[in-house]
Amino acid sequence: MTPSAIRPLRTDDLVAAHVLSLQAGWPHRLEDWRLLHAVGAGVAATGASGKLIGTAMWWTCGEDAATIGMVLVAPAARGRGIGRQMMQAALAALGQRRSMLQATESGLGLYERLGFRATGNVRQHQGRIAPERGAGVPAPIDPARHRDAAALDARAFGAPRTELMARLLDGNPAATIETARGLEGFALSRTFGRGRAIGPVVACDEGAAIALVAALLEPGFLRIDIPAEATRLGTALAASGLPAVDTVTVMRRGAWPEPAASDPRRFALVSQALG
Known about the structure:
28% of the residues lie in helices and 35% in strands. By secondary structure, it is an alpha+beta fold.
């Protein structure tokens, strides 16, 4: 068995990491990897020759929470425990933080052995929006409202994502719900993978979430990942040309901070890695 080494993931690893994700059939561009690395950290597994053969990343959310993702092992290196080694390194780096990840079926057993428990499902919707269904491209959220949007996201997500939200809010198209009380819902669209991705979507109820997403539909390829229980939103997405194409399992380790009953809800993830 060829030995592997686990070390911090570096900026100069990202081209090779991008190749790993392409081998796995994932849509991430090199630019997507660069954003993930800029707002997070990770480990790399390397073979005897120093070649990158695996990655695992994490993103801290406030003082006591984190998400984990981009857990990849090169096809030729699978079955050697490399994923387990990388996950153990990630959990050691996170210490006592509560952790969340979205698991494919192949990873469920490993994550369960590491103390994660299934808590729900996420449906991946994607497709190509025809020109006649597109709603145009709205303007970004006014920078004066960025703090309000980040605060809404923290309430819905259960933990603050300060640096990530600052980057997502900077110049990306947005749909918002404003009342006399202020900003009460928003959705963001950004370039990702094969086209664009919508998320996060934060709203007080599912009807509001459907309206926010509809305002961000534009011609071309779109992807959105939603909680499986958002069935009305899923039906609306399918009717718009974005059918469900995959399902992953939400897994948590530790008691994840739950939003209060009066808080807005998260109706779409930023991505499966970032939650």
